[in-house]
Design goal:
With 150 residues, the protein is mainly alpha-helical. It has one domain. It has four helices and no strands. Helix 1 runs antiparallel to helix 2, helix 1 packs antiparallel against helix 4 and helix 2 packs antiparallel against helix 3. The longest helix is centred in the middle third of the chain and has 37 residues. The protein is elongated. The model has no long low-confidence stretch (mean pLDDT 81).
């Protein structure tokens, strides 16, 4: 196993974990300041980690590193896709409730908001779990089964 590729992938895992944990804590602590710079920083760190994983994926000849980079990139894209879908459906429902005069939609808007927040936090926790699992396996230089979603 090439130690340089392993170290680069470790940095990528750590970047993703830091951003996901900060994002989760930021939301759970209820910080309401809409700081665009912080959101851009999260996105920049996540994209840096993704780029590092893709570089290692295409440069490494080691099968363990290759599997870890696949696991990493798939986790990232599933996380991003599911989080985007959850937020889009939630926002669409809220816009629908606001634009209509249906009392049923207005009453359920609160519950839908809670559902979206809880579901988005669950997917963030799932992503953190996947990053920790990948980091532990990589640290032990063990192959990871990237075809499983556990």
């Amino acid at each position: 196993m090439n130690p340089t590729h392993k170290n680069i992938l470790i940095v990528a895992y750590i970047l993703e974990m830091i951003t996901a944990v900060c994002h989760l804590l930021w939301n759970l602590l209820g910080y309401k300041n809409n700081n665009d710079l912080l959101g851009i920083s999260y996105l920049a760190l996540m994209i840096m980690g993704l780029i590092l994983a893709y570089i290692v994926r295409f440069k490494s000849k080691d099968e363990v590193i290759y599997h870890h980079s696949i696991y990493y990139t798939r986790s990232f894209w599933v996380y991003l896709l599911v989080l985007t879908l959850i937020i889009s459906v939630g926002l669409g429902f809220i816009f629908l409730a606001v634009s209509t005069n249906s009392s049923i939609l207005h009453n359920s808007m609160f519950y839908m908001s809670i559902f979206v927040v809880v579901l988005s936090h669950i997917i963030i926790i799932w992503f953190i779990y996947r990053m920790i699992k990948g980091l532990v396996y990589l640290w032990r230089e063990q192959d990871i089964h990237f075809k499983s979603w556990k």
